[in-house]
Every structure is written in structure tokens, then in C-alpha cells.
Design a protein that fits this description.
Two copies of one chain form a homodimer.
Chain A (H helix, E strand, L loop, with lengths): L1 E13 L9 H15 L3 E8 L5 E7 L2 E8 L4 E8 L6 H11 L4 E13 L20
Antiparallel strand pairs in A: 1-5, 1-6, 2-3, 3-4, 4-5
Chain lengths: 137, 137
Amino acid sequence: MVQSLGNHLIIELYECHRDVINNAQMVEEKLKEAVRVSGANMVQSVIHEFNPHGISGVIVIEESHFSVHTWPEYGYCALDIFTCGDEIDYHSALQYLKSEFQAQSMSVTELKRGMLDLPVKLLHKPESRGIPAAACA
Amino acid sequence: MVQSLGNHLIIELYECHRDVINNAQMVEEKLKEAVRVSGANMVQSVIHEFNPHGISGVIVIEESHFSVHTWPEYGYCALDIFTCGDEIDYHSALQYLKSEFQAQSMSVTELKRGMLDLPVKLLHKPESRGIPAAACA
């Protein structure tokens, strides 16, 4: 049966609060909290602050990654939430970040990654609750 | 005029060499080399190895990020190359990784991120050669 290995939300956040999305500490804290809200398991966080403005933040999770790149001068954030497994609440994470960045509008594209015709059900499907998240990678 | 802030290649690599994409050191070395080939500037690399198999690798660059998530058991890699600026040779980076991972087939979707109607030309457009890459974030 055709199944997908990963789920990728590609999010455009517009008219965000410019001070929030230009503050590396705040962006990292909110990204970490979004990971927590989603139920994912953080592996490592990387935050980079640009001069004169702009933040890049990436959190590698056991279920893939969250990334955000901000352009405070335009009030814009490019947010990606890439997860595997059916147990990650990525929609709650998305709503949390939209609210925290005070985005006035957004667009979301949901892509299925790794659509493969597999003979068996994937290990990380719901019936495998209890299997470590890492099993999905 | 409508311009995009970022360029995002969403790449599916199929039938890769399973030993290569299950070797964290090799995946990280090849991802770093792909960044170098593209002309991007590495900020930090994160690599995570899953048990029993699978690698996640993310490199934050001054021009956004490269990420790869591998499923060696299926010979599949989900590769993302997110860049800003017109001076990053992401197509060469893509061809390098396709070759090094020995992918037998791939699909590529190119997305423009942050399509905004801006009154002035972006700083990181070609006519601004010499401006630091960080200026694009």
C-alpha cells in the first residue's frame, strides 16, 4: 500500500511582530515550546542571529526537524515543520507559533514526503504506540 | 514588484545506497561538501543517528539551511535545500548529493518562499554582489 514516511508543513507567516521575530532568544524559546506542544522529542537546537537583522532557528527532533527563518524588516517568517510518525501534533505547534509571532496571516502547504508503495504498515503508525519515536527515522 | 525572499528545493531521493545513507559521518561529510559546492557559508552542523537505522542531518547556513532525513531501510532520503540570495548554486549541491548518495531516481520541487510585493529590489539580488550573504536574512 502507498504510505508516506514524513509529513512536511511549509508555512508562510506574514505581518509578524517585528521585534519578536528579530529576538534570537525569544525565537528559540518559542520554537522549543512549539516542539514541546507537538509532543516531539528535541535532539538539538541551533539559533543564528544575523546582522543587522534576521534569525535562523532549527531544532532537530527525533521525528525530523522544525526550522524558522525570519525577515523582521518585512514581518515575514518561513516556517517548516517536518515530522514523521502519526503521533506528533504539528497543527497545535503551528497555531502556537502563529500566535506567538503575532502573524496577521499565513499560508500552509502540507506535503507528504517519501510516498512509497510498501508491503507492510509502517512501524510508526498509531497501532505501534509505545515504539520509540526514533523508530520512525 | 513581487519578489521572493527564499528559494526552497524539496527533493525526494529514491533507491539510494543504503550503507551510505545510514552512515552518520558520511552523511555529514557529504552534506558539508554540498554546502561548500553551493558557495553557501556554514554556520553549524547537527547530525543525529537513530537506532536501529536512519540519519538526520541539518546544516544551518548564513543563507538558511540544508537538511536531510534518511530511511536506509527504504533507500530513501528527504532532502531540503533552503537558500536566500541569488548567488547560491543549489543545483550543483543537489547534483552532488544525488551522486554521492547514489540515488537511482529523484523528484525535485522548487518553491519560492516569502513572495512579497516590495517597493525596492532586494539587497541580495545579483547587482549587490559583494554584500555579505547574511544581508539576505
